[in-house]
Amino acid sequence: MGVVEKVGLVVSAGKGLNMLSRSKKSRATEYHLGLLKAKLARYRAQLLEPASKSGGAGTGFDVQKSGDARVALIGFPSVGKSTLLSKTTETASETAAYEFTTLTAIPGVIEYNGARIQLLDLPGIVEGASQGRGRGRQVVSTAKTADLILIMLDATKSDEQRRLLEIELDAVGIRLNKQKPDVVFKRKTTGGSVNFFNTTVKLTRTDERTIRSILASYKLHNCDVMIREDITTDEFIDVLIGTRKYIPCLYVYNKIDAISLEQMDKIARTEHTVVISCELGLNLDYLIERIWDDLGLVKIYTKKRGAQPDLADPVCLRKGCGKSSKFSPHAQKVSLHHAVQDEDVVSIFTK
Ligand SMILES: Nc1nc2c(ncn2[C@@H]2O[C@H](COP(=O)(O)OP(=O)(O)OP(=O)(O)O)[C@@H](O)[C@H]2O)c(=O)[nH]1
Ligand SMILES: [K+]
Ligand SMILES: [Mg+2]
Which PROSITE patterns match (predicted)? Predict the structure, then answer.
């Protein structure tokens, strides 16, 4: 009995030591990988954001932004992007069964809830688009200017298409459905050569040593870093690069008329996803509702003092955070920084 216990003790101690060295090892790997990623991210950023503004492959299509928000359609060829534009707006964009029917950006307007939402039909992209294949570079650059990206997918094809598109957008610095990391990062011109590092939370996915080394590798020797959420090393690099775009995204699976109900059911339950059939006009109303929601649009009514609000002519704004007056429907005076809610009535006055 006693012997067995002893053996047990020895074995578990050995395990403990093993685990210790393994986690040390993985910390070291994480550290070196972090530095390597910082270097790579810097090279990529230089490639993608040339100092000259002379245009070229890195710039998007020359279409003016208009209306209350811009939504860009991104997808492989022939998934039905132009069919969607033609069905939801007054604009006709050529559709056909062959690939690369659309060769440039075609804007249309979705009118909904008093808002004018610009929907941008774009050429299909292929794998390697961000590296300049086809019109890809131009398409993904245009995606950067959108307030919402619709990644359009063919429901009859494998889900590999979705991953490939995400890779292309990620490569040009677009972060989908992510908030900007809660990190305060300031470069300073005075105060000597020291990087101040502070956190308000425990870091479990990166550490101070990795971050300090990355700062050094960027030749940053005089800045303030305050980390307020449990970020990864990659997210810290994003903050340093500074040109990342955090854009909401809806995955739109088209051609559900050509798959089974079971398959459709499964896809429809995934996060940030809408299933449609452009051909049969199925679920397009719901898609537009979701676009409105994801854009965070609100409509507010304006009124002159002492007059009734003009309910026929709302103004559309992007939603701020926070709640409107909890005393509604009664009027309340608020500051100009007040965040409005959907269907608020607003009148502006001077003291
Ligand atoms: N079965 C089915 N076919 C569809 C649907 N929507 C579009 N299509 C067909 O898909 C083909 C391609 O449609 P397009 O709208 O030209 O696709 P696109 O994504 O704009 O293609 P590119 O401009 O070439 O990138 C056409 O033959 C359409 O008729 C749908 O809901 N169901
Ligand atoms: K097509
Ligand atoms: Mg098209």
Answer: G_OBG, GTP1_OBG
